[in-house]
Specification:
With 396 residues, this protein is of the alpha/beta class. Helix content is 38%, strand content 25%. The chain has a domain of 217 residues: FAD/NAD(P)-binding domain, CATH 3.50.50. The strands form four sheets. Strands 5-4-13-14-15-12-16 form a seven-stranded mixed sheet, sandwiched between helices. Strands 7-2-1-11-18-17 form a six-stranded mixed sheet. This is FAD-dependent monooxygenase. InterPro entries: FAD-bd, FAD/NAD-bd_sf, FAD_aromatic-hydroxylase.
Length: 396
């Protein structure tokens, strides 16, 4: 059985996989380019099979202590008047928690048993019949039986071991920015959305700490650049771009943007999906967003990461030395779930941030016309069904 496993990425998927691999007797190292675990981030949720995996990890009670569950969410006009009321908790899944809180819980659950290396990353991978020879940016070297890329949408591991990102990253025509602001409206656990043509502003309060999350979506057509990669790496340019693009947006946009310079947790990226024919190559395998990002609009990133980590570790335990079979079984188990999650993300984006005046008008009317039972089916019941597609296999 392969014993030494290197995981790149210490967000959600990586530590979750490390949790199960240690339980099954593997020697696990997690490398993370950041100097420590990353705080902040927006709320993430558990749905379907992932909720049962959390129970199996014994972490449900700890997660619920930090739960942020969003209540009433309203679509508003420029004066803040309600145009439509969305189902309570439609963004929250079965359990909702801030990404930073979840990362800390997973890290605390594994830090005593797993070797974490912060402030470093993989610079080269060479596969041999004996394992994978890894060179790190620090200059250190090591040999591992298997390497797992759990390092997100712009995975470094994937770039080194598979192919150019441009071939498998499919942009959806929009960008997203999220950062923390004070809950100056006193919404607590409630949320608001305001939409203009090709732009959407969100404000979601937190019942725990008096803060809120501001979200800004905009169509890529507002970005008059042919190369967005430098923008992705430059927070100052990102902030200026947000101010420029949303300078004409009403409601709370100006007040939210006034807090931008004080925000230390700005997330800015394209809404994109990762679509690959295979998630593994020899002894190297991808997990979570690195393998199959469905985009934040799908609302399934955490469920895919947690369910995938449980399945990958279980299949490696079951297959013994035959890692190729383990990778194939892991992928076959997750693929149907991922396919439906990506389809859901693709289908919602044009209605979420309409780019035509007709669609904008119709989307505003749609939410107010639709019966509550129909809204619940579309926004809560159907996503929960998708999140339950992946089976919870017994690997004990």
């Amino acid at each position: 059985m392969p014993k030494r496993i290197l995981i790149s990425g210490a967000s959600v998927a990586g530590p979750a996989l490390a949790f199960w691999l240690h339980r099954y007797g593997f020697d696990v190292t997690v490398v993370e380019r950041a100097p420590t675990i990353r705080p902040g981030g927006y709320a993430v949720d558990f749905r379907g099979t992932a909720t049962h995996v959390l129970d199996c990890m014994g972490l449900t009670a700890a997660v619920k202590q930090c739960e942020t569950r969003t209540g009433a969410i309203a679509m508003v006009d420029e004066r803040g008047d309600t145009l439509a009321q969305l189902p309570d908790g439609f963004t929250s899944g079965d359990i909702e928690i801030l990404r930073g809180d979840l990362v800390k819980l997973l890290y605390d659950a594994t830090r005593e048993d797993v070797a974490y290396v912060f402030g470093d990353s993989i610079s080269a991978l060479t596969q041999t019949s004996e394992g994978v020879d890894v060179t790190f940016t620090s200059g250190k070297r090591g040999r591992f039986d298997l390497v797992v890329g759990a390092d997100g949408l712009h995975s470094n591991t994937r770039a080194l071991a598979f192919r150019n990102e441009a071939e498998i990253l499919h942009e959806m025509g929009y960008y997203l920015a999220i950062f923390t602001v004070p809950d100056y409206l006193g919404l607590h656990d409630q949320g608001r959305y305001y939409t203009q043509l090709g732009k959407r502003v969100g404000y979601f309060g937190s019942k725990n700490d008096g803060s809120a999350k501001a979200s800004f979506y905009f169509a890529s057509s507002y970005l008059d650049r042919t190369d967005s990669d430098p923008l992705r790496r430059d927070p100052a340019a990102q902030k200026q771009l947000l101010r420029d693009i949303f300078s004409d947006v009403k409601w709370e946009a100006p007040r939210l943007l006034a807090h931008l310079d004080q925000a230390s947790d700005l997330y800015f990226d394209s809404l994109s999906q990762i679509r690959m024919d295979r998630w593994s190559d020899g002894r190297i395998v991808l997990l979570g967003d690195a393998a199959c990002c469905a985009s934040p609009l799908a609302g399934m990133g955490t469920s895919i990461a947690i369910t995938g980590a449980y399945t990958l570790a279980g299949e490696l335990k079951k297959a013994g030395d035959d890692y190729a079979t383990a990778f194939a079984n892991y992928e076959a188990t997750l693929r149907p779930f991922v396919a439906q999650a990506q389809k859901m993300g693709q289908g919602s984006v044009e209605w979420f941030v309409p780019r035509s005046r007709l669609r904008l008008w119709f989307s505003r009317k749609l939410w107010s016309w639709m019966p509550k039972a129909t809204l619940k089916e579309l926004m809560i019941d159907q996503p929960n069904k998708v999140a339950s597609i992946a089976p919870l296999r017994d690997y004990t």
